[in-house]
């Protein structure tokens, strides 16, 4: 048997994950025939989705023992899947962006375990950007799905051409006249706490977000970032009776979740699970005007024109089925969708996951422009500060036994 290798594969041409992985596997098996007789394990979003589906159908994902798999944070889910896979002594481990969305401690754990495995197991990383390449990688290859071809990786510099074009063009016009902001504070938390069962996740959080501020929210995996966001979007029932106000109104004072949501444009990659049907990119984008998952209303000519301008700006074909777009393209459409209705508050939760370097540069330009050209406040949740993003404020969650605390500060 050939000595196992660690490979890195960069997909070309924006394929979706489902299309990509099956074809990549076949192409690798013909390029390295010894791979055909080996057992493959997969670390990917679709593998995580399968465990989630198992849990919803059978009450048990088969992965995490003590907790519901669906209750784990995204980093905890990735770690649970990874730990299970490495225990099974795989012969070929196919991993999609294995080190993304992880905090430094989890990244170190993944690196160490993968390094130990690499002497007896093929490790195939599918990467969108070279930032997290495993340092002992033997070969870097580009994979072109259209021709089922592997070729030596062309190490393109982070191209800013696309991003520069956006900067030159500016954002598409807005659908409505700008309404002056009527809120002094969009969010005001005065000693907020969050518990799940006996466990305190967040303790004594004090946080004020005013009009036109750009916040970066960070913290290790499981520190409570998504939970904090769910209290702001009205999705967490534990918000009732807590000491905080949203858009000038005390939480739990008779406001509906839909009223809260009408002030917020929100994108988190988990939402993509709801967009698996046959809608095209234009329909998905337009649904942002109505806060609906599908498009059930007839958009105005103006809305249609603006949505087309957005897709043109992002260089995304409007008639393509949304689910056939690459992860990166889907995320860009969803970011624009969240912004389309001109919300006072725009929340982007790990939006750069799955973007290639060119798309990251585009995204950074886009978000900076969204902040500059509107009155919106932004909350950007991330594990890695993106080079070029210009937050004005930071909030960091710091884990403690009794629940995470928050440090807030102004960026100099
Ligand atoms: N519904 C729930 N029931 C019980 N525990 C939960 C629930 N939702 C989240 N948790 C737990 O709360 C903690 C915080 O989760 P959260 O998703 O907010 O973290 P996070 O900071 O967003 O993490 P990541 O960076 O991994 O996405 C985690 O330990 C998670 O397991």
From TrEMBL:
Pfam families the record matches: ABC_tran
Signal sequence annotation: none
SUPFAM superfamilies named among the record's database cross-references: P-loop containing nucleoside triphosphate hydrolases
Keywords, ordered alphabetically: ATP-binding, Nucleotide-binding
Keyword Secreted: no
Molecular function, one GO term: ATP binding
KW Magnesium (keyword) present: no
Occurrences of domain ABC transporter (ranges): 187-410
PANTHER family named among the record's database cross-references: SKFA PEPTIDE EXPORT ATP-BINDING PROTEIN SKFE
Protein name as annotated: ABC transporter domain-containing protein
């Amino acid at each position: 048997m050939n000595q196992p290798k660690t490979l890195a594969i960069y997909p070309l041409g924006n394929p979706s994950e489902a299309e990509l992985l099956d074809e990549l596997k076949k192409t690798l098996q013909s390029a390295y025939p010894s791979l055909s007789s080996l057992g493959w394990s997969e670390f990917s979003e679709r593998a995580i989705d399968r465990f989630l589906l198992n849990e919803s159908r059978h009450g048990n994902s088969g992965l995490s023992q003590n907790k519901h798999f669906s209750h784990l944070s995204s980093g905890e889910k990735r770690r649970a899947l990874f730990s299970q896979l490495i225990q099974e002594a795989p012969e070929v481990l196919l991993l999609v962006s294995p080190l993304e969305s992880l905090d430094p401690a989890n990244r170190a754990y993944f690196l160490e375990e993968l390094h130990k495995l690499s002497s007896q197991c093929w490790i195939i990383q599918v990467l969108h950007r070279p930032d997290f390449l495993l340092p002992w990688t033997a070969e870097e290859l580009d994979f072109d799905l259209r021709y089922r071809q592997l070729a030596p990786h062309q190490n393109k510099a982070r191209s800013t051409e696309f991003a520069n074009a956006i900067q030159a063009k500016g954002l598409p016009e807005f659908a409505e006249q700008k309404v002056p902001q009527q809120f002094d504070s969009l969010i005001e938390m005065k000693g907020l706490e969050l518990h799940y069962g006996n466990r305190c996740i967040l303790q004594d959080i004090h946080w004020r977000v005013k009009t036109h501020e750009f916040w970066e929210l960070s913290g290790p995996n499981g520190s409570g970032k998504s939970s904090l966001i769910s209290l702001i979007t009205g999705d967490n029932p534990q918000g009732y009776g807590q000491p905080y106000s949203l858009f000038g109104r005390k939480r739990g004072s008779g406001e509906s979740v839909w009223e809260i949501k009408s002030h917020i444009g929100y994108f988190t990659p988990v939402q993509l699970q709801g967009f698996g049907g046959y809608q095209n990119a234009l329909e998905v984008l337009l649904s942002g005007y109505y806060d609906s998952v599908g498009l059930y209303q007839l958009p105005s000519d103006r809305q249609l024109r603006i949505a087309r301008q957005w897709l043109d700006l992002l260089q995304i074909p409007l008639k393509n089925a949304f689910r056939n777009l690459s992860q990166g393209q889907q995320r860009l459409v969803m970011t624009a969708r969240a912004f389309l209705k001109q919300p006072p508050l725009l929340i982007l939760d790990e939006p750069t996951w799955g973007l290639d370097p060119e798309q990251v540069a585009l995204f950074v330009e886009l978000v900076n422009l969204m902040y500059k050209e509107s009155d919106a406040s932004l909350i950007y949740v991330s594990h890695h500060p993106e080079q070029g993003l210009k937050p004005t404020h930071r909030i960091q969650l710091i884990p403690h036994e009794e629940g995470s605390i928050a440090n807030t500060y102004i960026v100099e």
